[in-house]
């Protein structure tokens, strides 16, 4: 998800710095970004001379200190409140006071994450939809302590990115995942019960409902490990039975069938190119 958000930012003309703890992950993100943009040129979605300009805006680092000059930091790590608190507490000592912190979380309370950031008034939820480089929707959520000025600045940046923001309250799943997590779990249970093969379920949903991607294709992009965390977070707050993690997800994780990132999930993949490339 982080790589997709970085594409959106760099493509919109923003100087974009991508942080990861591993050099190989950064190298892969840059390769995926260039591959996606090249495909955009081939499809006539992007001017050829724009590609090098966008890539010049993109840089990677394994040093958090290199984010010291950022005006906006968007976090896209996995759904762990402790990990997010640790990251933002470090960033709070690195970034200047005016820097706005944002989280791409889809299930954890923005107020809770902001509470461990050291700057709850300058913290906002910015949930990009997967795949971020193709989807325009961003769910914008203020925490209880988010200042109106911060929210309006983040909203303006979202629009400058070429995205379509919608305001949501700080509630589990916001709008999209409140529906999607149970819906995707229903699709998983159809596979689990042998009702139909994954490819046929995806085809049925895409054909009947006009969706560009089937639920199991989307889950392969999300990753089974992430889906498990999403289910646990959503079910832990709402206690909605359909939000509970299906047993098949746990078995797929144990087998290493996490989705596109491992080459196999509900479908089999020959490469690890970013979606749309």
How would you describe the overall organization of this protein?
This protein has helices at 2-11, 23-42, 50-57, 81-94, 110-115, 148-160, 176-192, 198-209, 215-222, 224-238, 247-255; strands at 16-19, 58-61, 72-75, 100-103, 123-128, 137-142, 164-167. By secondary structure, it is an alpha/beta fold. It has two domains: 2-167, NAD(P)-binding Rossmann-like Domain (Rossmann fold, 3-Layer(aba) Sandwich); 177-262, N-(1-d-carboxylethyl)-l-norvaline Dehydrogenase, domain 2 (Orthogonal Bundle), CATH 1.10.1040. A five-stranded mixed beta sheet has the order 3-4-5-6-7. The chain has a two-stranded parallel ribbon with strand order 1-2. Helix 4 (81-94) links the parallel strand 3 (72-75) and strand 4. It is globular.
């Amino acid at each position: 998800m982080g790589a997709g958000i970085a594409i959106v930012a760099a493509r919109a003309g923003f100087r974009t710095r991508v942080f990861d703890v591993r050099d190989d992950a950064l190298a892969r993100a840059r390769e995926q970004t260039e591959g996606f943009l090249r495909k955009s040129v081939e499809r006539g979605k992007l001017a050829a001379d724009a590609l090098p300009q966008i890539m010049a805006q993109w840089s990677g680092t394994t040093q958090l200190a290199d984010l010291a000059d950022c005006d906006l930091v968007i976090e896209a790590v996995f759904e762990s409140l402790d990990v997010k608190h640790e990251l933002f507490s470090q960033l709070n000592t690195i970034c200047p006071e005016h820097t706005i912190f944002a989280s791409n979380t889809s299930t954890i309370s923005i107020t809770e994450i902001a509470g461990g950031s050291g700057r709850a008034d300058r913290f906002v939820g910015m949930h990009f939809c997967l795949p971020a480089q193709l989807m325009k929707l961003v769910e914008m959520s203020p925490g209880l302590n988010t200042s109106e000025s911060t929210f309006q600045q983040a909203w303006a940046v979202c629009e400058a990115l070429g995205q379509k923001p919608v305001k949501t309250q700080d509630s589990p799943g916001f709008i999209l995942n409140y529906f999607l997590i149970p819906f995707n779990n229903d699709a998983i249970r159809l596979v689990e019960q042998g009702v139909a093969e994954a490819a046929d379920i995806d085809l049925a949903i895409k054909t009947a409902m006009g969706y560009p991607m089937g639920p199991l294709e989307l889950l392969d992009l999300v990753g089974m490990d992430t889906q498990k965390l999403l289910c646990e977070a959503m079910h832990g707050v709402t206690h909605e039975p359909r939000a509970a993690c299906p047993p098949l997800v746990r078995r797929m994780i144990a087998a290493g069938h996490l989705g596109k990132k491992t080459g196999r999930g509900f479908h089999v993949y020959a490469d690890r190119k970013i979606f749309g490339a």
